[in-house]
Amino acid sequence: MLRLAVLASGRGSNLGALLAAIKDGRLNSQVVGVFSDRASAPALEMARQNGIPALSLDPAAYSRRRDFDEALFNEVAAVQPDLIVCAGYMRLISERAVRRCLGKMINIHPSLLPKYPGLHTHARALAAGDAESGASVHLVIPELDAGAVLAQARVPIQAGDDPAALAARILEREHPLLVACIAAIEAGDLELSEAPRWRGQMLDAPLRLNARGDLEKH
Ligand code: GRF
Question: pLDDT tens digits, residue range 75-123?
C-alpha cells in the first residue's frame, strides 16, 4: 500500500478520481494528506469530507517562495508519503523543495509533453493546429514540466473545439491515466528514479494509456 500525499490548488477532480479508485479497489493506496496553496480549493473540502487531513498555507504570508515551499513540504514530509502527486497544483515549486522529493513526486499536465509546458496548453494546441492533444504524467524536477514523462493519454482534436471543449475531453482521460500510473507504481511495474523503469527495462518513451485504461509500451 502506498501512502499518497496530494497537492492541489483547485477543483480536485483528479483527487476525486484517486479516491474513487481507492474506494472500489482499483488502487490499493491511501491518501494520507492533501495540501494546497489556496484555502478555498474545493480539493481541500473533498479531502475533509473523506476524512483525510487537509492543509493549506498562504503564500502571501511568506516573503520568499522558498520559505513557503519549505513550510509546505515540511507538512508534506510529516505525513511520510511514499509518493507525492501534484494534481492541479498551480504554483511553481522552488528547486530546494523539489530536490527533497526527487524520484517520488509526479505531476499530471494537460498536454503531450514536451509540447506546451506551463499554462494555456489547450489554447496553444488549438492555435498550433495540432490534430491531437492529451495528458502526461511526469516526474517533477526543478525545471517546469520537464521531468521524464512516464505515461500519456492521447485524444483527438475535433473541428470546432475551443479550449474548454478540449480541456473537458482531456480531463476525462487524465483520471484513468493518473490511476493507471499509480496502480503500476503500486504493482512495481513502474519504478521511479531519474531513469524510470517499466517491467525492469529502461523506459525510453512514455507509456500509453489504452482504451481499456491500461498502460502499454508504445
Ligand atoms: C488538470 O487539467 C491537470 O492536468 C492540471 O490542472 C487540472 C486540475 O484539475 N495540472 P483538477 O483540479 O484535478 O480537477
Answer: 999 999 999 999 999 999 999 999 999 999 999 999 999 999 999 999 9
Domain extent listing, the chain: 2-216
- pLDDT greater than 90 at residue 218: no
pLDDT of residue 21: 98
Residue written as grid cell 489554447: 123
Q: Is 218 a catalytic residue?
A: no
Of residues 176, 6, 178, 195, the one with CA closest to residue 83: 6
Assigned C-alpha cell, 144: 517546469
Ligand 1: nearest atom to the Cα of 89: 10
Relative to the CA of 8, which ligand 1 atom is closest? 12
Which residue type does 185 have? I
Grid coordinates of 21 = 479508485
- Is domain 2-216 classified as CATH 2.30.30.40? no
What's the whole-number average pLDDT of the chain? 98
For residue 175, give the C-alpha cell. Answer: 483520471
Q: How many CB atoms lie within 10 A of CB 138?
A: 24
Burial class (CB in 10 A: 0-12, 13-18, 19+), 69: buried
Query: Which residues lie closer than 8 Å to 138 by C-beta, 6 or more apart?
Result: 106, 107, 109, 113, 145, 146, 147, 148, 149, 150
Q: CB–CB of 18/31 below 8 Å?
A: yes
Q: Is the CB of 110 under 6 A from ligand 1?
A: yes
Nearest 5°: phi and psi at 181?
-65, -45
Confidence (pLDDT) at 54: 98
